[in-house]
Amino acid sequence: MTIREFIVSADPATVHRVAADLAKQGIGTRIIPTETLGTPQPPIIHQPPDLGLTPLRIAILQRIAEGCTDAEIAARHGVSEATTKRTVQLIYRKIGANGRAHAVLIACRAGLIRDGAT
């Protein structure tokens, strides 16, 4: 098994919500209780004060946090799925994220989006 991404959170509700969102996308998850990891360490995440995203890109991040697929985001914003995929990749590059969960985590911590609640 290759670990591609991980989320560290002291809030079990957040961990389970993110795991459920990933499961909707067909991404398997494994939740490891923090007690088995030893002393909790603060996550190391670069949080620039201004991520420099347009309102549209912030809206796309919010849709990602809500668990929307690229096709659903495209339909909601009236663009093609290919355009949405390119925009999502540009967002990742701009904020230094390596995937959907990481992008949502960065955006939440920067105060740009809600934590996935609709």
UniProtKB/TrEMBL annotation:
Pfam families named among the record's database cross-references: GerE
InterPro entries from the UniProt entry: Sig_transdc_resp-reg_C-effctor (IPR016032), Tscrpt_reg_LuxR_C (IPR000792), WH-like_DNA-bd_sf (IPR036388)
Alphabetized UniProt keyword annotations: DNA-binding, Transcription, Transcription regulation
Classification via SMART domains: HTH_LUXR (SM00421)
Gene3D superfamilies: Winged helix-like DNA-binding domain superfamily/Winged helix DNA-binding domain
PROSITE patterns: HTH_LUXR_2
Domain named HTH luxR-type: residues: 46-111
Source species, domain of life: Bacteria
PANTHER family recorded: DNA-BINDING TRANSCRIPTIONAL ACTIVATOR DEVR_DOSR
Protein name as it appears in the record: Response regulator transcription factor
